[in-house]
Amino acid sequence: MEQKDDSRRFYLREPMNLGEIIDATIDLFKKNIKDFTITSLVVAAPAIVLMLILTVINMTMPEDHESILAMVFIFVTFAVSFLIVIFYLNALIKMSSDFYNGVKTSFKEACAFSIKKFWKMTQALILSGIGFAVLFVITGMVFAGVTMATSNQYLAAGAAIIPFGFAIYYTFCIFLFPYVLVIEDAGVVESLKRSYELFRSSRNSMMKIILVPYLINALTIVATFIPFLGSFLVFLTYPLPIIAMTLVYYDIRIRSEGYDLMLQAEKLDSGL
């Protein structure tokens, strides 16, 4: 059963700048490190076991079967990784959102929730992936078409910048759809539309969506240089980018929709 925590974290009060989001991400992670770590271990354990098994098979398989084994290895790894990413994404967004709002959610509850959202998130990822594919195919066709017509690759590259720019813009527009889908319990198409609206509603959203995940990942990469514990620390910090983007989602809602005021209104309505 989820339990409400009366204490609100400092980053719930007002919009945050880039540095405050990173500080709040680390703070939220430290306060709930046990739950995040257990969830990471439970979700990633099957993939780790599979990787070990396939590695052993690869080492013991005769050389004449290496190409077939490599194809099987790539296919199985891709399929399992895709399923784990979906499950992991649902669970971590759920936990990050609840912890942010002062709700204590166990890893069991997060995993159970992730199962319920699994198919919806899968559909949304596939639909967004089709959009990426279409835009990149158009980019390739423009480049090839201009190259054939003019034999000028520089001109072709210039022409391809336009559809490629749309692809990049499309990426930013739908970047928040997993968080909308999980936190707002929206449908697939509705989540994609809502992500676009949130992105367009805040002048600060683009910079944060561009920088926050990479800055957080840069912090985790530093851990790889620590002897012996480096790999474990990288695994331990996997939740950080998702926590950070959850905070970006709420930050945009505070800026554009007055989410903090909505919470205060709910408290008044409930008589708290």
- Report the uncertain regions: 1-12
For the termini, the CA-CA separation is 21 Å
Structural domain count: 1
Arrangement of strands in the largest sheet:
1-2
Largest sheet: 2 strands, antiparallel
Rg result = 22 Å
Structural class computed from helices and strand pairing: mainly alpha
Number of strands: 2
Overall average residue pLDDT: 78
Which shape, going by the Cα principal axes? globular
- N-to-C order of helices and strands: EHHHEHHHHHHHH
Proportion in β-strands: under 5%
Give the helix tally.
Answer: 11
Report the helical percentage.
over 70%
Multimeric state of these chains?
single chain
Plain-language structure description:
The protein is 80% helix and 1% strand. With 272 residues, it is mostly helical. The chain has one domain (30-267). Helix 1 packs across helix 10. The protein starts with a strand and ends with a helix. The relative contact order is 0.12. Residues 1-12 have low confidence and may be disordered.
Keyword list:
272 residues; 80% helix; two-stranded antiparallel ribbon; single chain; mainly alpha
Topology, pairings included?
Blueprint (H helix, E strand, L loop, with lengths): L2 E2 L13 H14 L1 H28 L5 H35 L2 E2 L2 H44 L2 H21 L3 H7 L4 H14 L3 H18 L7 H7 L3 H18 L1 H11 L3
Antiparallel strand pairs: 1-2
